[in-house]
Design goal:
Elements: H1 2-16, H2 18-53, E1 58-62, H3 81-93, E2 97-103, H4 105-116, E3 133-138, H5 144-151, E4 157-162, H6 164-206, H7 208-216, H8 221-262, H9 271-296
Antiparallel strand pairs: 1-3, 1-4, 2-3
Helix pairs in contact: 1-8, 2-6, 2-8, 2-9, 6-8, 6-9, 8-9
Length: about 300
């Protein structure tokens, strides 16, 4: 009987405040959708960092004959074979180096042609203008400074370059987008909480006669609160369900059927990451409105 009464009160509350309940559902859906998307974007950035940082190398470029008289390390022109052999031997002794690959000027020119193809820029460079280099693979790519400090001032070395600098702006952009999404999510969350509190207060005010009678007959505060808390929890849960639909739809349409086809060099996160986020979204959508309703009702339950 008590359960039937609580359920009937929930139905009455939802019908009386249908517009505000709908607003709560939409705001919760948008805020939790952004929250889930932010978590997935963070995982995507971590996955991309692990993928690209594992592939990038540290490049030690040697002076060539065109560098004679330029820079402190290239005053004597092209690097000698002895200088290159000494650097190779020292690299092989370093425990943080995984492997070292030599790239000749002809190989560098071939890669240059592959990169620029038939564009006008491709004809501006000749093989003898491109330096020889060692492509150094590190066990820990973050230890680039060790290689740079050890070899950048060596005779015959034109430059020590970390290829992470090429991909770092992309990661900074993605991190910035993630922070922006979190800020918008926080704003939407505040709006959702304000709507929940106002909806609960309006509902409690419209039923103040019923709650007054329940107090007089000795009903406990928890029993009086229960319909209002469950109303907010149901609205929040519906919003969380719609947020899950948005997340799954975004993964399927935006990532799988568009980005994955357009940008094939990126290893996008899988459905396992999405499945790990959805329960958290549902849990927050259920608990957040219930707690907000509980604290909002405290002033209305003073006997």
């Amino acid at each position: 009987m008590r359960a039937q009464f609580v359920l009937s009160e929930i139905g009455v509350g939802l019908r009386r405040n249908l517009t505000m309940t709908f607003a709560v559902i939409v705001s919760v859906a948008l805020s939790l959708g952004l929250f889930g998307a932010s978590l997935l974007m963070r995982d995507q950035v971590s996955t991309m960092k692990g993928y690209w940082y594992d592939k990038v190398n540290v490049s030690i470029f040697f002076c060539n004959k065109n560098d004679a008289g330029s820079g402190t390390n290239c005053t004597k022109g092209a690097a000698t074979q002895q200088q290159k052999d000494d650097i190779k031997a020292e690299l092989d002794r370093l425990p943080l180096v995984q492997n070292v690959q030599y790239e000749s000027s002809d190989q560098a020119y071939k890669h240059y042609k592959e990169q620029f193809g038939d564009t006008p820029v491709a004809g501006l460079v000749t093989p003898d203008q491109l330096p020889e280099s060692y492509r150094v693979k590190l066990k820990d790519p973050t230890k680039f400074t060790v290689i740079k400090s050890a070899f950048s001032e060596r005779p015959g070395v034109q430059e020590v370059q970390d290829q992470r600098d090429t991909v770092e702006p992309l990661f900074n952009l993605l991190n910035g987008m993630n922070i922006a999404a979190l800020c918008v999510m926080g704003l939407m969350l505040v709006v959702a909480l304000m709507l929940i509190v106002n909806t609960v207060r309006v509902s409690a005010f419209s039923r103040r006669r019923e709650t007054g009678i329940m107090r007089l007959v000795g009903a406990s505060s928890f029993y009086i609160q229960m319909p209002f808390i469950l109303e907010a929890a149901i609205a929040g849960l519906l919003g969380a369900v719609f947020a899950c639909v948005l997340i799954v739809g975004g993964k399927y349409v935006l990532v799988n059927n568009w980005l994955a086809e357009k940008i094939q060099v990126i290893n996008f996160i899988g459905w396992d990451s999405v499945a790990a986020v959805l329960p958290l979204v549902l849990l927050i959508g259920l608990l957040m409105p219930a707690l907000a309703a509980f604290f909002a009702l405290r002033k209305y339950l003073k006997v």
